[in-house]
């Protein structure tokens, strides 16, 4: 057994949007139904065909929905009354840019975000920076690809939370 310690970097994007509006904004971008990845594999004879099939499900941010876990649906049984959804999203065409350099990058691709209901009819989107999970040993090509994923995920988070609007408003004043 080999142990490789690493530190994850958690990022939280607070939003003035309601929980429902945040969920809606994210799903409007990445899709409301999980992409049928294994069907896409089965219908593709080669990489080019797979690429074309994947592109049909990719949203404006470059990501697609893989799964959603409604934690809020079960934590109420333990007396926790908050809406919380964990969303698994990604893009095999992005993942391959990392898996080519380290197959263990597949531990963290696709990525996950957590949408939470916050006080005052607000919400938040939280995730761990993919590069902080994927790059655990020196590997420049892997790090470059993972940093590109970081940037894409941050852009999505800023867009769906409305934080990008707040940033441009602040910088304009």
From TrEMBL:
<dbReference type="InterPro" id="IPR005180">
    <property type="entry name" value="DUF302"/>
</dbReference>
<feature type="domain" description="DUF302">
    <location>
        <begin position="69"/>
        <end position="130"/>
    </location>
</feature>
<protein>
    <recommendedName>
        <fullName>DUF302 domain-containing protein</fullName>
    </recommendedName>
</protein>
<dbReference type="InterPro" id="IPR035923">
    <property type="entry name" value="TT1751-like_sf"/>
</dbReference>
<dbReference type="Pfam" id="PF03625">
    <property type="entry name" value="DUF302"/>
</dbReference>
């Amino acid at each position: 057994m080999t142990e490789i310690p690493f530190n994850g970097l958690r990022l939280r994007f607070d939003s003035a949007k309601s929980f429902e509006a945040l969920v809606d904004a994210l799903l409007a971008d990445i899709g409301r139904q999980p992409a049928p990845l294994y069907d896409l594999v089965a219908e593709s004879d080669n990489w080019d065909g797979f690429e074309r099939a994947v592109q049909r499900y990719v949203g404006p941010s470059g990501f697609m929905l893989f799964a959603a876990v409604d934690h809020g649906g079960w934590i109420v049984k333990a007396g926790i009354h908050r809406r919380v959804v964990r969303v698994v999203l990604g893009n095999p065409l992005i993942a391959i840019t990392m898996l080519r350099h380290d197959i263990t990058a597949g531990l963290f691709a696709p990525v996950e975000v957590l949408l939470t209901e916050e006080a005052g009819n607000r919400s938040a989107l939280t995730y761990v920076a993919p590069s902080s999970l994927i790059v655990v040993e020196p590997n420049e090509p892997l790090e470059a690809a993972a940093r590109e994923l970081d940037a894409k995920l941050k852009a999505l988070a800023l867009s769906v939370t409305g934080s990008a609007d707040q940033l441009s408003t602040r910088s304009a004043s």
